[in-house]
Amino acid sequence: MTPAVTAALREGVSALASRLGGRARLDAPLGALTTYRVGGTAAMLVDVGSEEELRLLADAMASSSAAGRVPVLVLGKGSNLLVADSGFPGLVVRPGGAFAGLVAQGVDDPDFGTFVRAGGALGLPVLARRTVEAGLRGLEWAVGIPGSVGGALKMNAGGHGADTASCLVRYRTVGLAGAGGGEADASSLELGYRTSSLSDAEVVVWADFHVRRGSREAGKALVSQIVRWRREHQPGGSNAGSVFKNPLDDSAGRLVEAAGLKGFRLGSARVSEKHANFILADDGGTAGDVVALMAYVRRRVAAATGVLLRPEVKLVGFGPDALGEDPRAEDALAQEGRGSEIAGARTVAE
Q1: Distances (CA, A) of 5 to 1, 49, 55, 287, 292
Q2: Which residue of the set 94, 170, 194, 299 is catalytic?
Q3: 7-95 and 252-347: identical CATH topology
Q4: Which residue among 86, 148, 242, 272 is the active-site one?
Q5: Which end of the chain has the smaller Cβ count within 10 Å, N or C?
């Protein structure tokens, strides 16, 4: 079930679009801009290429009668999103241009050490390769994550023994729709396992990452090793990476496989045969099939292991009961005869 699009919300989108003029694209494809390549449109999409354009957008939102009524989503590479088939009934902001560059490399600061400054829209694999090429070490892990710098701050992206929290120094954001903004140290983000305090309406302008000077050859070798490992162990195709967060001291993929779901198909979506924590979407498939399979996997894993998996993929445009977290959905599970098993499931903290 998707959230109801109220008359007030439609009016709010219309009012904001009128204020933004030609900069706003109405009913713009959104699912196609994600790595899942399924899902509907955004009520409105605005591309921003500089901090000045971003501030003009923020001013327009603040002075519009739509302020506070139109939900906002900042879109990076779309590598961790599943968009509902009915779309997203709000404003999608897509940074690019000046936000997609590496602003500074190898800066030596007496307070922060050696760091690089990356734009919020810069792809993480590009960041990893460019820093290695400059003889800077410490960000090789990012080569295997198909997201952006802004997305890394939002989700505390990580892999191969490191994450954003381990190397982020400071950052700058611009807030929209009354959200925060400004420059702050990494501690302000409250980075946890695939979480942060960054709001959906904050756009990352830049982020500083700690690096160290080292061997370019060794850095390139590590990048190649990470790329090779991911190709061997993770599937290609239309997906958004890991679907569920790993429970403490366990692996979501192991739990899904233990429940006998590797390769399981539901409509146009299937659990990967190569890695059970990946759900793939067929060409021309639907987001509804993907989220239905996610919900089914959660139920089966809970019944088999007592662990209720939490999603790592961000669901956009879906209602609160999309994964069976609504009490009505849990009642439906009880009617299936699994109520006693699932009632004893422990919830894994996000």
Answers
A1: 12, 29, 27, 19, 22
A2: 194
A3: no
A4: 242
A5: C
Q: Is 148 a catalytic residue?
A: no
Q: Per residue in 11-55, pLDDT tens?
A: 888 888 888 888 899 999 999 999 999 999 999 999 999 999 999
Q: Which of 137, 202, 272, 312 is catalytic?
A: 312
What CATH number has the domain spanning 7-95? 3.30.43.10
Q: 252-347 is classed in which CATH architecture?
A: Alpha-Beta Complex (3.90)
CATH of domain 99-232: 3.30.465.10
Q: pLDDT tens digit string along 79-132?
A: 999 999 999 999 999 999 999 999 999 999 998 899 999 999 999 999 999 999
251 is catalytic: no
Q: Where along the chain do its domains lie? A: 7-95, 99-232, 252-347
